[in-house]
Design goal:
Helix content: 25-40%
Largest sheet: 6 strands, antiparallel
Number of strands: 6
Distance between the termini: 23 Å
Radius of gyration: 16 Å
Structural class: alpha+beta
Length: 160
């Protein structure tokens, strides 16, 4: 069975927070860029904002939508986040900031994003021809993080 963004919207007809619920539901359950849920998440109009986002677990409307989506399209199995080849990243993709666990990586790259919470989903967009993600203003007044690539061709500091 193929799941589309339109199918998900139709199942949540009349719900005010349908796009937000679809985004977070797909974010939690997608199994990579080739999955139906990832495509639906990218197609949604919702853009998460870590500074204005309410707790999803405390929002009865979102929880109701999750229940509808799960019963309609589930069950799902949680997939492990994976490193991403830079060549596979497109504008409007959603990447997740990763936790830096290897000491050598930390020494080489430092803490990647002071202004983006670890584990936060970020939409990719182009600015001056470069792919990157938006962030909150940091101490240097930057609001765009250009994606960086390591020697093996993987995007530094993000998983999907």
């Amino acid at each position: 069975m193929t799941i589309t963004y339109t199918d998900m919207r139709d199942s949540l007809r009349g719900q005010r927070k349908a796009d937000e619920a679809i985004f977070w539901f797909c974010y939690a359950w997608h199994s990579g860029a080739d999955s139906d849920l990832y495509r639906a998440m990218v197609e949604s109009d919702f853009h998460p904002d870590q500074h204005r986002q309410t707790q999803i677990a405390d929002d009865p409307e979102i929880l109701y939508c999750f229940d509808v989506l799960g019963k309609t399209f589930g069950p799902f199995i949680e997939a492990q986040m994976q490193p991403i080849k830079f060549g596979d990243v497109k504008e409007n993709d959603v990447l997740t900031t990763s936790e830096i666990t290897q000491p050598a990586f930390r020494l080489k790259y430092g803490e990647r994003f002071v202004c983006i919470e670890r584990g936060w989903p970020c939409r990719v967009y182009k600015w001056h021809g470069d792919l990157g993600v938006a962030c909150a203003e940091d101490g240097h007044g930057k609001s765009f993080h250009k994606l960086e690539v390591d020697e093996a061709g993987y995007v530094v500091g993000f998983v999907r």
